[in-house]
Amino acid sequence: MRECTGYEITQEWLYHLGVPVDQIPDMAKNSARCIPCMMPYITSFFMPRTSGDRPKVVPEKCVNFAFIGQFADTVRDTVFTTEYSVRTAMESVYTLLDIDRGVPEVFGSCYDIRVLLDSTSKMMDGKKLTDVKLPLATRVKLKSAMKEISGTIVEELLERYNLI
Ligand SMILES: Cc1cc2nc3c(=O)[nH]c(=O)nc-3n(C[C@H](O)[C@H](O)[C@H](O)COP(=O)(O)OP(=O)(O)OC[C@H]3O[C@@H](n4cnc5c(N)ncnc54)[C@H](O)[C@@H]3O)c2cc1C
Fold first, then answer.
1. Is the pLDDT of residue 29 over 90?
2. Percent of the chain with pLDDT over 70
3. In this predicted model, what pLDDT tens digit does every residue of 60-77 receive, in sequence order?
4. Alpha carbon 114 to chain centroid distance?
5. DSSP 108
6. In ligand 1, which atom is closest to the CA atom of 42?
7. How far is the CA of 85 from the centre of ligand 1 (A)?
8. Which residues does residue 56 pair with via DSSP β-bridges, in sequence order?
9. Going by fewer Cβ within 10 Å, which terminus of the chain is more open, N or C?
10. Measured from the CA of 79, which atom of ligand 1 is nearest?
11. Is the per-residue pLDDT at 19 higher than 90?
């Protein structure tokens, strides 16, 4: 990616949007302007964090200021989203002005087996569990596990998320 021109990046993007392939070069050249830029520190968002690394949205005993945005600490949410910024802003206003309104709950995706299976499939680039190269012993175990789940909801879920 880092060696791509803006024209090439736009072509790639249009392809993923499903634009008919024969229209892509013209659209990318004449209907868009893309200036590539590098964001070398962007992964800093995903460094491990722990309690105390970032200030709480409304630090203890504060009554007239708050921290909002990606570097304020709120419970359970994941950074690098507009939602995170909005949630911290809501939390700060409701807390400082003592407004009795709940901040929308973070979607409990980490407890949802469907999301976890879907993410697993995406992280394996759509490869099925049965296509993964495994040592013989593990393959044998997998085969017997597949027999065990045959006809069950587990098999149905694995199929639905393209894992088998
Ligand atoms: C490449 C990329 C892709 C992303 N994709 C997604 C996505 O798909 N979905 C998603 O939900 N989120 C995505 N995000 C994250 C999302 O865009 C940000 O988390 C969100 O925009 C942050 O909003 P914010 O209002 O807190 O901060 P910002 O949008 O960063 O706003 C802060 C503003 O403060 C201004 N500012 C800074 N310092 C000063 C100063 N001293 N004085 C005055 N103004 C100042 C800045 O110019 C800026 O306008 C992406 C971010 C990037 C970079």
1. yes
2. 100
3. 999 999 999 999 998 888
4. 15
5. -
6. 53
7. 8
8. 73
9. N
10. 19
11. yes
Write b or e for each residue in 62-81: b if 16 or more Cβ atoms lie within 10 A of its Cβ, otherwise e. eeeebbbeeebbbeebebee
- CA-nearest residue for atom 7, ligand 1, is 81
CA distances from 82 to 63, 75, 85 (A): 25, 16, 5
Closest Cα to residue 161, out of 111, 123, 109?
123
Q: What 3-state DSSP class applies to 22?
A: helix
pLDDT number for residue 151: 95
CA proximity to 74, closest of 100, 103, 98, 116: 103
Contact assessment for residue 117 and residue 157, using Cβ atoms and an 8 Å cutoff: yes
Q: How confident is the model at residue 1, as a pLDDT?
A: 82
State if residue 80 touches ligand 1 by the CB under 6 angstroms criterion: yes
Pocket test for ligand 1, best of 78, 79, 80 (most atoms within 8 A of CB): 80
- Long-range CB pairs of 40-47, under 8 A, 24+ apart, other chains included: 45/70, 45/79, 45/80, 46/79, 46/80
